[in-house]
Amino acid sequence: MISVESLSAEFLGKWGNQDHLTPFLDSLSEHSLIFTNLYATGTRTVRGLEALSLCVPPTPGQSIVRRPNNESLFSVGKVFNDKGYATQFIYGGYSYFDNMGYFFENNNYHLIDRSALASEEIDYENVWGVADENLFELALRQIDAQATHGRVFSHILTTSNHRPYTYPEGRINIPSHTSREGAVKYTDYAIGKFIREASRKPWFDNTLFVIVADHCASSAGKTELPVNKYHIPMMVYSPGNINPGVMDRLMSQIDIGPTLLGLLNFSYVSDFFGYDMNQLEPGRERAFISTYQNLGYIRDHKLVILSPQLKTQTFQLAEDNETLTPTKNDEIVREAISWYQAASYSFKNGMMKVDNNKLVSRFEKSR
Fold this sequence. Notes:
It contains 9 helices and 16 strands. With 367 residues, it is an alpha/beta fold. It folds into 2 domains: 2-263, Alkaline Phosphatase, subunit A (3-Layer(aba) Sandwich), CATH 3.40.720.10; 287-366, Arylsulfatase, C-terminal domain (2-Layer Sandwich), CATH 3.30.1120.
């Protein structure tokens, strides 16, 4: 799983971009299962990591990645561990940033960051981390080491598509430190190099490559929660295992874990809040979006915004997901509150811990 820094759907040709910023990903999408109606839960990397690893809605305030008492939670890494996989979180920066190292090391992942690279292995670095191509070289080495012994799940987090938008010169036709567009194109280049090198590995034919954004490049818009500013791309590439196609159902970042585990045909007892989109009955699709203070809930072309001091707003979404018409729907407001309140209550009361009883029985005891 490659979670790409700030990769808005609008950067990719498959989603309408005409600037040819992602030639490799656009080509790869033709051979992948692509997810076209997917929304990030938040505006920062830690929100994306929370959703991708724990599959829970964004709890009010701070991401669980940065909160106290966030150890031993039911995670995607836990499911892979139970299936006999080595699990890794590989990051091009220093893992103390945003508490990522502590969080992943205490939730069934082996942590690998830029400190695993020697100085001569780094072509370029900035405050956020090493160049994405160096990160992927590290990832290949780590995957090779584990694949010789068995199965491995690696979650890789890129950093190059971030201010100040710097990267090694000579890789693409946009000079470093020029623009966001250059950083996007460089990351596309680095992912392409990684996939091509992986294709020569003995483990390639038995591997799923998942490419997804951690969040969008910008969340600014005309409304408090502009829905299109949360639209992110995802593709699953595994020639011979996953048929190319399109999943166009509305889904949230928290649904990615269960959906991927479903593609792997895993059987497990789940405490995830997310859905396997290939098993979910029609009509239950929904998505979560948020800022630090505002929590959004999307279902049936309606958007609920929950704000501090018990403020609630409900809007009808037009087909473009931009035009909002104020409306009133108490039922969907209660539904939105129940999702967010259940997630917050579960975390605060230790119900996401793997060493406790199952979630349903705990709720029954607390009623």
